[in-house]
Amino acid sequence: MALNGKNAVVTGAVMGIGKAITEILLQNGAKVALLDVNETAAKGLMKTLINQYGEDKVFFMNCDVESEKEIKACLKKAAETFGGIDILCNNAGILNEGLWEKMVSINLMGVIKGSYLALEHMNKLTGGRGGVIVNTASMAGIGPLPSCPAYTAVKHGVVGFTRAMAAASTLSGYGIRFNVLCPAFVQTDLFSNIPKKLGIFSELCLETQQLVEHFGVLDVSDVAEAFLELVTDETKNGQALLVLPTDKDGKGGNSYITFPTYVQ
């Protein structure tokens, strides 16, 4: 999929991974609707993006992904403003083991709500033109992060949901590809605040730090490049892309995870 002329929606779009994804979409010619709850950060970013790409290429909407009503309204506005939706990135997320129910609501239910509501605009069976949905999970969606059991659970859920939706789309003819990003530790505010967000598992902070030292830390641009691959390569559907830093010996880097499947 060439991105020039395509219309994208990104949740959690104004900081960290979401910001990097927004920027790489714009750099490759797409129009982007930024959805986020951080209006303060959005103001400065929007000024920069409008100056660089023009008012017709980008706009911001306050959107809490816990609210089906807000997601629905924002997707409708994006479709009306741009003339359709080709790309959705469900990226909004938090890490807070002390607020695990809210984490489930944002990180998993937000992804499911966003995907289902996007079908109303993208599904070829109901007049859409198809496209691609990429969900942001984590390395914790592939293997457990002991200090973050609930975070591990929701990210596993995002991976499983994405793979099932890819199969459903293929079997039903939605014309939409579904893929999932699974980055390791990424230099963001979420990463920096991990020690404060472990709740009853705070005694495992040292184990988390050892994992960080073992794997290293990604830049948000590394994740954005992996996202671009999942969007532009039309052979990728139902894929979970593990994104790891590459060490001095050339070990690590990106790899696609192989899962057992029961779909013939």
Stretches where pLDDT falls below 50 for ≥5 residues?
none
Terminal CA distance reads: 26 Å
* Estimated share of beta-strand residues: 15-25%
Count of beta strands? 8
Order of helices and strands: EHEHEHEHEHEHHHEE
The largest sheet, given as strand count, sense and whether it forms a barrel, is: 8 strands, mixed
Rg of Cα set: 18 Å
Number of separate helices:
8
Fraction of residues in helix: 40-55%
Provide the spatial order of strands within the biggest beta sheet: 3-2-1-4-5-6-7-8
Coarse shape = globular
Structural class: alpha/beta
- Average pLDDT, to the nearest integer? 95
What is this structure, in a nutshell?
This protein is of the alpha/beta class.
